[in-house]
């Protein structure tokens, strides 16, 4: 029996999650459809731009992403502590960038004076919005729903664009986070859509190496489509690699970008027979720190979804037996 999303996503367990959304029937609704000859590649840009803008509005950081022809992957970090630093006006501005809000909120933002009862309503509304802006389900709703509506409008049809709501997997360890990010960044290489990770379009690894997103154009595209009302914040960068453990609060990813890039390239050379070169004689330092052999790492990175799906089914079976 499926578990409620609130039980699957708990920041107290881990702030890191792997999220997947697939097009209905896994058809190529975001890429080139060989059967019809229709090219939907531009929709991959829609998803990438929308995800980056939403990450800036929400208290959610993007660690990695890959937009494929019939699905996309996100690795996110939930950061509710970010919303605690926002003022009430910040919260309202962020939420009203996506939704119009009730009349009392609109009047307040226009500078109109509110009665005491209206102010109490406004305080409750701000509290609700603050919670939503930290919530993964609301983030995915704000991402998937406009994409589906715009695609249906473009195709002149109605009905489902995504096959289901979305799937999420908690990443409980540093090993899980690292292997999942590499799995996501190497998706286009494994699918023969790109020769190298740095040449794979609409992926986080390409964006880290050579930023492509045009913020002004992305905002204008969203404004023109009617799915963004304003953008009062700066574009949030992808979650940074901190490189080493610190005594204070760890905000970023506990590895260096250089080590991660070396690891992704190393893994890509192993799994892509068309790439030049052989298995490097050295092992990336990050593997040694994780206590993994090259074979263990390759299996972890190339079979991430399958391995964690098996682990999840085993855990559910254990809980049923225990009950």
Quickly list its features:
15 helices; Transposase IS200-like domain-containing protein; 2 domains; globular; Alpha-Beta Plaits; DNA binding; transposase activity; 6 strands; alpha+beta; two-stranded antiparallel sheet; Transposase_17_sf; single chain
Question: Going by CATH, what is the homologous superfamily of the largest domain?
Answer: Transposase IS200-like
Task: Categorize the overall geometry.
Answer: globular
Distance between the termini: 13 Å
What are the segments in which pLDDT stays under 50 over at least 5 consecutive residues?
275-281
Helix content: 40-55%
The CATH architecture assignment of the largest domain turns out to be 2-Layer Sandwich
**How many DSSP H or I helices?**
15
The profile of the biggest β sheet is: 4 strands, antiparallel
Mean pLDDT: 84
